[in-house]
Write a structure and sequence with these properties.
Helices cover 47% and strands 0% of the residues. The termini are far apart. The chain is mainly α.
Length: 245
């Protein structure tokens, strides 16, 4: 058997020789190529990661994607890798990234089969479509669109997401590790929902098929049921005219 140092040297030499024999990928310096850092986690073209934790970003409203990139940059959302990636980027470049993924119209994967009991799914459907006035919880459709596919300019769709991701985000709002612009309506709602209701609405949403036309609906001007900073804040960053490479 070769000594460890000789073996390591041989493996390194073999790897270098193999790599040198491979054709180098063509460097395009396109935004799509630069976004490889994003799709390594969020799936090819941002269709969602295979582990059920990294969500789909393709087709989300540009305003929503931009807001989330800024929230990772400011610490309103906690994720060390995302924070390191966006920290050096200008507002204009973040806006360009958001527009790139928002413009991708790609088919969705089939919904996961429902595994929760019927009574749990029924409760989740009630919360999503009708809300619960006794808990001061409006229906998800009141803000996320009648088909739950999102609304322009900055409200995401809720379909096509795994239940663990939805659970995790509601938990993060409840615990204060995810924040949005004040007044933070999602944090308020998450704290009004008991754990059983969080699990119910997550299970029901994840089991719903995504309609063929899943684009976010246009802004209608309809008054939302709660004061919400994400609606009131401007979407386009002031620096969007000076996008850095």
């Amino acid at each position: 058997m070769l000594p460890p140092t000789r073996l390591a040297a041989l493996l390194l030499t073999t790897h270098i020789a193999w790599a040198g024999a491979q054709p180098l990928p063509r460097f395009e310096d396109s935004l799509a190529q630069r976004m490889q850092a994003c799709v390594n986690c969020h799936g090819q073209q941002g269709r969602a990661g295979p582990d059920g934790y990294y969500p789909r970003i393709a087709g989300k409203p540009a305003g929503y994607l931009y807001n989330q990139l800024k929230h990772f940059q400011t610490g309103q959302r906690k994720h060390a890798l995302m924070a390191r990636m966006v920290d050096p980027l200008s507002d204009g470049y973040l806006w360009e990234i958001a527009q790139h993924f928002a413009a991708l119209e790609l088919p969705h994967a089939a919904a996961l089969p429902a595994r929760a009991p019927a009574a749990v799914l029924q409760r989740g459907e009630q919360l999503a479509l009708r809300g619960d006035a006794s808990q001061q919880v409006p229906a998800c459709t009141a803000c996320h669109g009648a088909a739950l596919t999102g609304a322009q300019p900055a409200t995401p769709g809720l379909l096509g997401l795994p239940p663990d991701y939805i659970n995790a985000q509601l938990g993060a709002w409840h615990n204060g590790t995810r924040q949005a612009r004040t007044p933070d309506c999602m944090a308020t709602l998450a704290r009004r929902l008991p754990a059983a209701d969080v699990a119910a609405v997550s299970a029901w949403l994840a089991a719903q098929p995504v309609p063929p036309n899943a684009a976010p609906v246009a802004a209608t001007g309809t008054r939302v049921p709660m004061e919400c900073g994400s609606f009131a804040a401007p979407v386009t960053p002031a620096a969007a005219k000076a996008v850095q490479p």
